[in-house]
Every structure is written in structure tokens, then in C-alpha cells.
Amino acid sequence: MTAETPNSSWVADPEIAPGAVEPGDVLVVLPALNEAEHIESCLQSLMRPAHWMSHCTVVVADGGSTDGTQDIVLRLKRTYPNLHLLHNPHRLQAAGVNAAVTHLSKPYHKLLVRCDVHAIYPVGYVQALAREHARVKSASVVTAMDATGQGGFQKAAAWIVDTPLGSGGSTHRGGQKAQYVDHGHHAAFDIDWFRRVGGYDPAISHNEDAEYDMRLTQSGGKIWLTDQTRIAYVMRPTLGAVWRQYWNYGHGRANTLLKHNARPRLRQLAPVLNLLVLLVSACAMPFTSLGLVWPALYAGVLLGTSLIAAGLLRSAEGLWAGLALGAMHIAWALGFLRRVCTISKPRSSEVQTG
């Protein structure tokens, strides 16, 4: 069978109840833009086991890459005939996933699986999600993620981001417990629920996953954090790349909160409050030594983080951890405040999902 026909030739997985989710019922989407460095390793990890994954529809929604990403996908299509390349003229990840559902989903598709090009997937990842979705019957199944890096700054940043200091205690960052959550790393969606709540908001460039989860839970959908599979997420390799990433994260979180008139959680306010206290302290330094207290404490936390990381990683590479942590905190806070101080209201769009 091909990815464009129902799964009539597939012998049902004995671990999945008859009539539940089988491989031909699954639409897998990877939004991408200039990801030549990561796309091949990601897809090759995702396509295992071949006997199961060859019956899924797998789509790379490309936002107009100019670095050879599209050529790599077309080359891989010769090995994986069920792989499709879809042009995403709106470039953003949210729009790419929506476009795949609009143009390539079929009436027999039950499950939408969103994947991240910066991730390396364990064997049977999509299969495990299908099995878990069939078991819990939730509107969404999310996964825990473990950051990884090859060395130097990237390795240290990967270590710190999975700690409470780096992630604020997010349940899906290094989490081990299966439970219902308000948000997690997006993995599998009941495709009917995805359409019902309008899919992703294509006007949101970052934090579109949390914004979707907010609408989903408000509509009565449940989100299940599975412990049956997890992903390895490849951290950005440089300080500048992490800075830009976390600026965008902060900006996107503020956009979501403004759109829904929601209050930020304490862990989301923490980096903003830290930055504001640092700024007030800097202004106070010429007049009182008390202005040195908070900066000194924060510098101590960053230094201590570096020393602990170096010890636990048994490498001087860990000394980058404090600098990476500071960049995450400050960039996120600046992005958040930049968006909050913008006069314009967040733009929302009618989402077309077929």
C-alpha cells in the first residue's frame, strides 16, 4: 500500500486494540526552514521501524529553505516513498502543520504526530505514541524531552536546561512520570480534536504549542504526558543562538498570555522579576552598596552552576553552564517585556485545517 491509500495491506499490531490506531491512520508532520544540518538524521531516526513507519504519511512542511533542506528531503524520498515535501509559503511552523492537515490529511487519518527537526527519535517513537493514544483516548499525547549536545557550550547548555533552574520545573523537561498536564512537548494529536479547536494559530511564530494547549484545555480536551517514549532534543550550539531562541520564547509566551488575557505563572515571572531587580540594582549602585547585593547573589548562582556542572559532567566544558543559564534567563525576560510593552494587540487568525 502507499501513504495515499487506506491501510488494507497492514497486519494489525497485536499490541493495539482492533479498530484503534494503525500506521496508515497516522499523519506525521515536520515543519522545517533551513535545517540541512539536522533534517536527514532526524528523518532517519523517525522512520524506524521501517515495516511500521512505511505505512504512515510523513510530511516535511518546508518554509522556503535555501540551504539544501529541500534537496535532502527529495533525495530521501527515493528511500522512503511515503515521504512528502510540502511548500509552506507562510514559513512559520504553525502554518506548516496546518497546511499539512489541510492538504495531505485523508478521511482515514486518526492521529496527527508533530515532530521537531532538532530532535533525534528513538526506534518505534510514532508507534509508541499510537499505542498510547489508543490506550488513554486523550485529545493530545505529549512527551518528555532530554536535551543533548555534542560538546563545549552545547553540552553544558543541554545539561542546565533540564534542571529546575533552566526550565522552571516544566513537567516535560526531563520528566519521568506519566500524568495529565496543561502543556508538554507536542507529539500526537487526535486529528478530530485538532480540527475542532482550529489547529495552531498561524499568526504565532513562537509558543504556538502552549497557545494551542490553552485553547484545547479550555475546550475540554485532555493532555496526557506519556512515559512510554521520549525524545532527545539537540540544543543550539552557540551562546548567540540560545539567546535568540529564548528571546523568541519569551516574546511568544507574552503573546499567548496577552491573546488570552491570562496571568503568567510564577516560574514564568521569575526571570522577568530577576531582570527588573538587576536593573533597579544597577541604578542604585552609585548611591548605595545595597545595589550590589542582588547582582552578587545572582552571579554567585551562575558561578555555582558552572562549578557544579563541571563536576557532574567531569569536564571543564561544564563551566559554560552558568553563562548559558544567564543567557536563557535574561533573553527570555527581555523578549517577554518587549512584547508586553508593544502597543499593538496580538494578531489572531482564523485557522484553516481542512
Automatic annotation (TrEMBL):
Alphabetized InterPro entries for the sequence: Glyco_trans_2-like, Nucleotide-diphossugar_trans
Domain Glycosyltransferase 2-like span(s) in chain numbering: 28-196
Transmembrane segments: 269-287, 319-337
Domain of life: Bacteria
Keyword terms: Glycosyltransferase, Membrane, Transferase, Transmembrane, Transmembrane helix
GO molecular function, a single term: glycosyltransferase activity
EC number(s) given by UniProt: 2.4.-.-
Similarity section: Belongs to the glycosyltransferase 2 family.
The name this protein goes by in its record: Glycosyltransferase family 2 protein
Organism, as annotated: Roseovarius phycicola
